[in-house]
Write a structure and sequence with these properties.
The chain is mainly α and about 90 residues long. Helix content is about 70%, strand content about 0%. Helix 2 packs across helix 4. The termini are far apart. The protein has four helices and no strands. About 10% of the residues have low confidence.
């Protein structure tokens, strides 16, 4: 019974993380003052870096953006190009 509950809790936790990540991906704001939604290409470029460097900030888009800026030296080339392009 306990193992069954723990298995269900694990699935629920993974589902919550996946939905949170999905929310982030749909709400990812560019670094512009207008906080426009990033393109699918920009989200694809930065998603791995978000999970690697800023997972604790999900789903707070502003905190994620700030985290990525703080970790600029550790960003992948693709994500760094997104920030360079946006002027951030």
């Amino acid at each position: 019974m306990k193992a069954r509950f723990l298995r269900f809790a694990g699935v629920k936790s993974r589902a919550r993380r996946a939905s949170t990540a999905g929310l982030f991906l749909t709400l990812f704001a560019s670094v512009s003052a207008n906080a426009q939604q990033g393109t699918a290409e920009q989200r694809r470029a930065c998603s791995p870096d978000v999970y690697r460097l800023c997972a604790g900030e999900i789903p707070n888009v502003r905190a994620i953006t700030a985290c990525l800026r703080r970790n600029r030296a550790n960003l992948s080339e693709a994500c760094r190009a997104v920030f360079d392009q946006a002027g951030g």
